[in-house]
Amino acid sequence: MAEEERRFTITRRQALVAGGVATAGAGAAAIVIATSGDDEDEFPRLSVAKLGDLQPNEPVSFEYPLEGQSSVLVDLGDEVPGGVGDNNSIVAYSALCQHMGCDVQFVSEGGYMLCPCHQSKYDPAREGNVIQGVAQTPLPRIELEIDGDDVVAVGVDGLIYGYRENLAPGARA
Ligand code: FES
Question: What number does the ligand 1 atom closest to the CA of 98 have?
Fold first, then answer.
């Protein structure tokens, strides 16, 4: 790529930021931009479960968006905020506790997520909010879509414990 071209090739995130600035500064000279076409800022689309295999309150573990970023999906049975599926009851969260990064586990009998290290509890039916313990912030939510029989992870809302950003460093799951 020629140096002149490279100077004007930016990532999609930069393009969005630039778009916001351009909107805020209406009247300023137009800037012609091009996206780079790479996907370093894009969350992967990853099928993490089959609708036909899900049973209410039986968790499914997966890694997302990077290898080693443990996450958990559960069909809570009843409609919950942000849930997907026919009953809007399927949710997923990063399983890395927001206190010190231990793996939280879904407790079917209570319908909560429990950290085995210092017993923080999170509520998967209330957007992963802390309901007990030393953790201070909700579990990051794994954004889901339904595609046929697939439950597809498409993004993360919140910063996964131990990372400055959710997509680095590491390999995509
Ligand atoms: Fe989960 Fe401390 S690491 S409560």
Answer: 1
